[in-house]
Amino acid sequence: MPTVTNALSVPAAGAPFEAVRIERRDLRDDDVRIDIAYAGICHSDIHTVRDEWGAAHYPIVTGHEIAGTVSAVGEGVTAIAVGDRVGVGCLVDSCGECGPCKDGQEMFCTKPAVGTYNSRDYHGEWTAGGYSQQIVVTERMVVRIPDALSLDVAAPLLCAGITTYSPLKRWGAGPGVKVAVVGVGGLGHMGVKIAAALGAQVTTISRTDAKAADAMALGATSHLATSDPGAVVAARGSFDLILNTVSAPLDMEAYLRMLRPNGALVNVGLPSEPYVLHPFSVIGGNKVFTGSQIGGIAQTQEMLDFCAAHGIGATVEVLDASDTAAVDAAYDRVVAGDVRYRVVIDTATIPG
Ligand code: NAP
Ligand code: ZN
Hints:
The chain has helices at residues 43-49, 99-102, 151-154, 160-170, 186-197, 212-218, 229-234, 252-256, 280-283, 297-309, 325-335; strands at 3-9, 18-24, 31-40, 66-73, 85-88, 91-93, 114-115, 134-138, 143-144, 178-182, 201-206, 222-225, 239-244, 259-267, 288-291, 316-320, 342-346. It is an alpha/beta fold.
């Protein structure tokens, strides 16, 4: 029999969250059932629920920053056992056989990969995410959470952590490299912690100075407020690498001007509106404008191990969801940039 679990669901674009009961499938041979402890609120959840990207399929149970404990395993599962502390990020399945899957880039699976929510799985069922008390996931997409990380601060690593770790590694953040992180939110604060742990010199770029002191505590050595036009001009030609995590459209050319020649601006923010980019802004200085999407499963494990070794968890606000209106309020606070720095839902509080 499938199990039934408490979950938070949105029935239509713009509607508030409601408490529902959803079914999780019977365990297949390669399945793992996880009792979820915490689920982070990523801005992608908000873009999706509010149908800002289109293609939302309602009702939706969001949540792709999942941390919990294994409560059952299928007969063919060998690497994971009941009681293990585990995480699930943005993907719950991929073909495992195509070039990208074999390269450890499951997010680019050609079948394609199955998203943790708002996605049809290979059996035709719509997936439902981590704002719930249990989830069933194929073993290959489950990562281990090291003992050094508590589950609340580990949950956001499953999206915010890997989405910043992957491009920081790829583009060489490390000693002697000047990195700027644009937007001090869920992704941004993880970008600062990880870039600093990699040995880079980190500047935070935020709308105001309100997060300046926090930014230093997270590991930045300087802070730039875009509300100060003089500071923006003074930063021209300063950075080797800029990681943009902002959820709204930006004047991308102003940020490209802050790069040194041959520098790279990696965009991970996903606003629904396009940026304006003139060819001159990358041709002058041989600059790179590029993007990055989450990261593969092996690299997600590498990131968790790195964070554990460096004592890095997310900075979280734990949310009691027994009144579902608290989740709607948390969404508004994320959009306002008020959260310090990731809300995680204590899933035990989700009403039945
Ligand atoms: P978040 O917690 O809301 O952080 C975004 C930050 O952007 C805010 O804290 C704020 O920083 C800044 N910001 C917000 N509105 C702004 C505006 N109008 N103008 C300038 N700055 C603004 O969001 P998140 O969870 O980190 O996600 C950030 C973005 O990354 C979202 O678009 C999300 O969908 C996307 N994302 C992409 C991937 C990927 O694979 N590429 C994965 C996950 C998420 P300050 O207060 O410091 O200004
Ligand atoms: Zn996310």
